Each structure stands twice: as C-alpha cells, then as structure tokens.
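Exercise 7. Given the encoded structure of a 253-residue chain, write a plausible sequence.
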C-alpha cells in the first residue's frame, strides 16, 4: 500500500514536471545555438524535515530521496533547472525534546511527498564555456518556484480521509557541479523547500492528541512552536548532454 502511494505521488510529480521538461527540450532543440545546452539526468540523496517537531536540527532523521532533473544552459553563468522527485520525511516528539502543545510526547509521523521545482542557477565562475577548456567546475546558488504534492489528512474529526493536494513551495539551495567530459556532468546540491502550510507533520488523524475542531492541530493558545514547515534535499546528480556542441564559430555563446 505504501509503495503504491509513493508511486502515485511520484507519478503526479512527473506529470506536473513533464510540461516544463518538454518546453526545455523543445526550446533547446529548435534554438539555433542550442547544441550542448540541454542536460537530462538523475538525482538521489537524502531528505529531511524542519517544522514543529524539529525547529532547527539539520539532517534530522534523513530519508531516501530520488528523482529526475533537466537543465537548460543559458550562458556559462546561468542555467534553468527543472526537477521532479519523491522525498520522504519523518519526525517524532521524543527525538529532540520538542513537543506539540498539550501533547503526550508520543506523536510521530512518516510521509512521502512529491516535489516539482523550476529553478534558476547562478554559477560563481564561468562554467562549461565552449571555448575555454579550464571552465570544468563551479559552485552555484539556485532559487525558484515549485509545488509540493502530498496526502493531506482531513481536519474534520468525523472524517479521517486523505486528499492529494498541491501546494506552493519556494526552493533555494547551493551546489557544486563538475564537467567530466563533453557528455557527462556530475554535481552535489543542498537545498531547502519553504512551504506555506503547517501540516506536513500531521499524518494520522487518530494519533493527534487534541480535541475540538476550532484548533484541530493544537497550534493555538500562545505557543511559539507553530511555524510553516520546510523540508530539505541533499544529494548528488548525474546529467548527460543531449546535443554535441558545434565550435566552428567563436563569435558568441
């Protein structure tokens, strides 16, 4: 059952990302100077959660994350990156001494989420310039917009059903990439997804130790624990150049 849910989430993520990746491919294919500008590959690493049960600890209960990535190179300094991934997050009250208001210290959750993002990358140094052979590596920063896909538990105590939702997320990260040869690139990235919801850590309705529908998650009443949830991805990626660059003319890039 859990595997089917994960595959469904990843499928939704791929569907949402498919339009973006198709545009990147078509744009690179039909642009005159598109040779060697489109990269497609895989990403894998770990994901973790930051929220009410973990306000600040990095790499808290890391879990598996994997997906696909495509990058369209604009210049040797800028690129546009699209990605679709399945990430897993989890947490518990007893792990670091943080508790839900009025909780009993026993609450825990595990969740699979789909992540789709479109980001701009800025390279700190010239990277993969077609006529400068030494531009084989660079650190970079990335930022953009995305969507998080997950099963939201109903806040109605009479209805414990789940509904798949798509919410806004703002990804921002840092990374390093290296060009192995004219076909293969590798990289490492650490990024955060800022969301505008506070229920990523609400997984099972019957386990929530609160009563009343006015405050179904128990966050009100003057608590300072309440904040919007974040999650993070740290991992590596391998991409493959889809077109071989033509280098007859050095008049521009």
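Solution.
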């Amino acid at each position: 059952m859990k595997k089917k849910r994960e595959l469904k989430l990843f499928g939704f993520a791929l569907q949402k990302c498919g339009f973006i990746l198709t545009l990147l491919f078509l744009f690179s294919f039909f642009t005159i100077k598109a040779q060697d500008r489109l990269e497609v590959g895989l990403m894998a690493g770990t994901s973790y959660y930051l929220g009410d049960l973990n306000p600040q600890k990095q790499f808290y209960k890391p879990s598996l994350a994997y997906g696909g990535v495509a990058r369209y190179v604009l210049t040797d300094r800028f690129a546009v990156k699209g990605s679709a991934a399945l990430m897993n997050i989890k947490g518990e009250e007893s792990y670091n001494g943080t508790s839900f208001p009025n909780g009993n210290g026993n609450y825990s959750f595990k969740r699979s989420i789909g992540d789709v993002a479109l980001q701009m990358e800025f390279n700190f140094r010239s990277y993969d310039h077609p006529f400068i052979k030494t531009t084989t590596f660079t650190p970079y920063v990335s930022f953009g917009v995305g969507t998080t896909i997950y099963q939201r538990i109903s806040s109605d105590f009479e209805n414990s059903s789940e509904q798949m939702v798509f919410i806004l997320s703002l990804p921002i990260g840092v990374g390093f990439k290296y060009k192995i040869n004219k076909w293969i690139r590798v990289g490492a990235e650490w990024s955060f997804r800022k969301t505008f919801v506070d229920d990523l850590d609400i997984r099972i309705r019957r386990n929530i130790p609160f009563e009343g529908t006015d405050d179904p998650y128990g966050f009100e009443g003057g608590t300072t624990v309440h904040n919007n949830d974040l999650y993070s991805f740290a991992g590596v990626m391998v991409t493959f150049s889809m077109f071989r660059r033509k280098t007859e003319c050095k008049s521009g890039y």
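Remark. Helices lie at 2-30. Students should compare their own answers with the one above.
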